[in-house]
Amino acid sequence: MSTRKKKPEIKSLYYITHIENLPSIFSQGILSHRQVIDRGVDYSAIYDAAIVGNRKLKTTPDGRSLWDFANVYFQPRNPMLFRVVQEKGAKEIVVLGLQPRVLETPEAYITDGNAANNTTRFFDYKDGIEAVSAIWDTINSEWWNSVDGSKRKIMAECLVPGSIPPDLIHSVYVANHHVADQVRAIISPGDLPVIPEPNLFFIPARRYRITPDLFLAEGDMFFSNMQTLTVSVNTVGIMGKGLASRAKYQFPDVYVVYQDACRKKWLKMGKPYLYKREASFDDELIDEPGTIVTPNSIKWFLLFATKHHWRENSDIDGIEEGLRWIAANYKSEGIKSIAMPALGCGLGNLDWKDVGPIMCRYLVQLEIPVAIYLPREREIPPEFLKREYLLAERAG
Question: Are strands 214-218 and 300-307 parallel, antiparallel or unpaired?
Answer without folding.
Answer: unpaired
